[in-house]
Design a protein that fits this description.
Blueprint (H helix, E strand, L loop, with lengths): L1 H6 L5 H7 L16 H16 L2 E5 L1 H9 L5 H16 L1 E4 L6 H4 L13 E3 L2 E6 L6 H15 L4 H8 L3 H10 L3
Parallel strand pairs: 1-2
Antiparallel strand pairs: 3-4
């Protein structure tokens, strides 16, 4: 690790000693699963403030999914998962539908119903497309359904979609909306 980097000439020894005043060993998150819930609670408080949301807690099945996951990205990955979930939920309790598919224990399906986006019958917060839907139509449908979900809050929709607000405005202009 750092000593190997010094030996390999990738880290200056004087810089290492300047930074290494106090060594703290912090095991990876996968080795301290009991910390996931309290870290999540603290992160949700901060993310609520950042995104002006009102998420109040995490459903037990989500915590179970968090416990089964190995968190290779450690706390940074947990924060990213929670940030997206908080933005998607907006308020109330974080549920499995708010976390990525890899944590839900199943793959998400984004193919089936018509050239336009439609709600999945058993999940009104999902979008389905039939095979053969163009990327442009799928993108348009996804953007419009996300705007529906956010009650036309474009800033929140852009965050959910992972695009800039400017890109969202450009896409809407392109769609004539």
């Amino acid at each position: 690790m750092p000593d190997e980097a010094i030996r390999g000439g990738h880290l200056r020894e004087d810089l290492y000693y300047r930074l290494n005043v106090f060594h703290i060993h912090l095991p990876p998150l996968r080795e301290r699963k009991e910390d996931v819930a309290p870290i999540s609670d603290a992160l949700i408080d901060a993310l609520n403030r950042k995104h002006e949301c009102r998420v109040t807690g995490i459903a037990s099945d989500v915590l179970d999914a968090f416990d089964r996951y190995s968190w290779p990205g450690n706390v940074r990955e947990l924060r990213n998962v929670l940030e997206r979930a908080v933005i998607l939920a907006g308020e109330g309790t974080l549920e499995l539908k708010h976390v990525p598919a890899f944590l839900q224990g199943r793959a998400t399906m984004a193919a089936a119903a018509g050239a336009s986006a439609s709600a999945v019958p058993d999940d009104p917060e999902s979008v389905r497309f039939s095979i053969g839907t163009t990327v442009e139509d799928a993108e348009k449908g996804l953007i419009l359904r996300t705007l529906e979900h956010t009650h036309n809050n474009k800033t929140r929709a852009a965050e959910i979609l992972g695009i800039s607000l400017k890109t969202l405005h450009n896409k809407l202009k392109e769609y004539g909306g």
